Amino acid sequence: MTSRDYWSTVWRWRWSVLGDLPAVTAGWGLDTIVRAAEGRRPVQALRGRDELVTSEEHSGAGRGTLLLADISGYTAFLQAVAGAHAADMAAGRFVPKAYPLLTSLLDGIVERIAPPFVLAKLEGDAVFAFAAEGEPGVRGQLVVDCLTACYDAYRARLDEARQLMACSCDACLSIGGLELKFVLHHGGYIVQSVAGHQELLGPEVTISHLLLKNHVADLIGRSAYALVTESAVAQLDLPLEHARPITEQYDHYAPVRAHVLTFP
What we know:
10 helices, eight-stranded mixed β-sheet, Alpha-Beta Plaits, globular, alpha+beta, single chain, disordered N terminus
């Protein structure tokens, strides 16, 4: 089975069984659908709850808030599912429900953060978004409320996914262990066209991604959290009285002081 055939099957299965494909996919050709399913969706085709909000509308240098929402355990989960159903998948007999359900989780994250954030791109198991400096909806308690609402919606979709998971193998049932984490940073960036798509580049963009690999688990254990750098706290006037301090160190960068906000 080719990648094209495989992902076409995934997308059609999701439409027929879950019925939750975004309305924006109406009119997409098969090539676009395959790119979308493979995590290569055209950024201009992704919509927030109210309007088109993507990096295609931005260019040049800027400063603002960088947000990453990452599903922890995503890669290991897919590997386990693929291993448990390798024979059936190779024969083209069926697509494990884990695949379209995970796509639904990513869609739900995008719906909750864009707007007020602008979607930059999907990065496998993570959503990368940003907000230009001065964006009125990205400040103070509104930011915390946005992340909290995103997490609550994620957990609701995950609970629904577990109910829909007909397969009882250990790999598929482990979907309940997928957790969500956020990284929130503030700094400069360059929006530049790369291979026909607008990409965010720059040292602050790099450090925000590096922060996904951190030592938060040593501090709070396995739990959902938002890692918020001091630059983001200062610029956005975030209320993090109950957050716990942490310092991360990466090659070629000064120590990054941050705060860990946990979710129930």
